[in-house]
Amino acid sequence: MDSGRGKKIGKWGEDQACAFLIRHGFFIKERNYFSTVGELDIVAQKGGDYYFVEVKTRADGELASDLAITPAKKYKMEKTVQKYCYQRSVPETGIVLAGLLVVYNRLSQKAVFHYAIFS
User: Fold this and answer.
1) How many beta carbons lie within 10 A of that of residue 12, not counting itself?
2) What topology is assigned to 3-117 in CATH?
3) Residues 61-113: tens digit of each pLDDT
4) The pTM is what?
5) CA distances (Å), 31 to each of 1, 54, 61, 62, 108, in order?
6) Is the separation of the CB atoms in 42 and 49 below 8 Å?
7) How far apart are CA 108 and CA 30, in angstroms?
8) CB atoms near residue 22 (< 10 Å)
9) In Å, what is the CA distance from 57 to each residue of 10, 44, 49, 107?
10) pLDDT at 5 > cutoff 70
11) Which residues form a coiled coil (predicted)?
């Protein structure tokens, strides 16, 4: 897949993920936070908890239809979250690292969501 198409699909997936989170009572604090340590796709809040969400977008039938969050990626997310919390004066309590897999169903032309918490 070329990078232009990949970015377009990735943005679509993140848009779908934000809509999903909002429907489930989350407030989107920030999207695509970048630091020298790494990137966070979505920072959301629900109640007093902050959710740092890694979004993966796939088409149904793709071989890699999982979250593909490796231990190295999780470690990088943890370090990026620490930097985010420091920069934004967010207490490091009530922190949740999560992954959201957005699968595009070609037949229904809708998104199907798979959510996992890994902290």
Assistant:
1) 14
2) Trna Endonuclease; Chain: A, domain 1 (3.40.1350)
3) 665 556 667 889 899 999 999 999 999 999 988 999 999 988 887 777 778 77
4) 0.86
5) 24, 11, 28, 26, 27
6) no
7) 30
8) 12
9) 6, 18, 25, 16
10) no
11) none
Distance in angstroms (rounded) separating the CA atoms of residues 99 and 82? 17
Burial per residue of 28-67, b for 16 or more beta-carbon CB atoms within 10 angstroms, e otherwise:
bbebebeeeebebbbbbbeeeebbbbbbbbbeeeeeeeeb
Give, in degrees to the nearest 5, the angle at Cα 71 between 88 and 45. Answer: 30
Q: Is 81 exposed, middle or buried (0-12, 13-18, 19+ CB in 10 A)?
A: buried
Q: Output the CA torsion sign for 100, 23, 7, 43.
A: negative
